[in-house]
Amino acid sequence: MTKEEIKQAIIGQILEIAPDIDEGEIVSDENLQRSLGIDSFDFLKILTALNEVLYVEVPEADYSKVDTLEHMAEYFAQRIKS
């Protein structure tokens, strides 16, 4: 999977969990929770959904490493089994 495909998967899950968000609101280098008004429960739901789609679990200790779309895509790209 390319990093761009991973980004699209992330965006898809964000839009599914928080359908009131417009895709244009998702800025690659801004904190997702703050910029989109996502609470910690929805953020956890996004990470859980991504685990089911991309087969990569994000431990709580790594939450700060997946705070933006760019960081999240990089995190998953490094861990996806080819």
What does this structure look like?
This protein is mostly helical and 82 residues long. It has one domain (3-79): Non-ribosomal Peptide Synthetase Peptidyl Carrier Protein, Chain A. 56% of the residues lie in helices and 0% in strands. Helix 1 (3-17) crosses helix 3 and helix 1 packs across helix 4 (69-79). The longest helix has 15 residues, at 3-17. It is globular. The N and C termini lie close together (8 Å).
Structural descriptors:
Non-ribosomal Peptide Synthetase Peptidyl Carrier Protein, Chain A, mainly alpha, single chain, 82 residues
CATH class (first level) name: Mainly Alpha
Morphology: globular
Structural class: mainly alpha
Which H/E pattern describes the elements?
A: HHHH
- Please outline the major beta sheet: none
How many independent structural domains?
1
**How many individual helices?**
4
